[in-house]
Amino acid sequence: MIKNVIFDLGGVLVDLNPGKVIRSLFSEEDAEFILKNIFFSEKWREVDRGTLTPDEAFHIYRNDLTPGAYEKVIDVIDNWNEHMPPFDDVYEIVRRVKASGAKIYLLSNVPPYIHKMIETVPALKLFDGFVASCDVKLLKPERGIYEHLLEKFNLKAEECFFIDDMSVNAEGARAVGMKAHHFANHDVEALENALRQYGVNI
What we know:
By secondary structure, the chain is an alpha/beta fold. 46% of the residues lie in helices and 11% in strands. It folds into 2 domains: 4-15 and 85-197, 3-Layer(aba) Sandwich (Rossmann fold); 18-83, no CATH class. It contains 11 helices and 5 strands. α10 (167-175) links the parallel β4 and β5. α1 packs antiparallel against α2 (28-39). The longest helix is centred in the first third of the chain and has 12 residues, at 28-39. The radius of gyration is 18 Å and the shape is elongated. The chain starts with a strand and ends in a 5-residue tail after the last helix.
């Protein structure tokens, strides 16, 4: 029986679209450089992991951008929470899951701006607990981050249903014994059906 539903953040609870955001804020040349070398870089994983600040990770690119652009992008990253609007339809699912009596948790690869989002994303106010990669220095799909969640909140893996927009992270959850759903293409109906399939009364 599923007693706990665990949500990812970006791409599930909120809209994560760095391409759209960065292209709207920077020149075409700067935007393409920022996306390739910052947002879609291996070093971004270390920012998510909490082992590097954005400035520590990307200061080598300071002189590769037009004047002022580097400082601007670091500020954008630090306040990225302002550029990820919540999904109203997923909030409704969260509300219904909570009303069903299940506990709800967050497990996300995310930099420290997550702590600002707790006050600005309505769904997060309903959550029973959070595990952010930046706080525990672990990343999905590493086994340790799922085990940390289970241990922190005294959960049994077989009683947990995990939702993520990346299939590799869903597989990571299954590897520790959770049920999991790949939330692909923002298919809310498929998510609702999967929750019901595993006995969540929404």
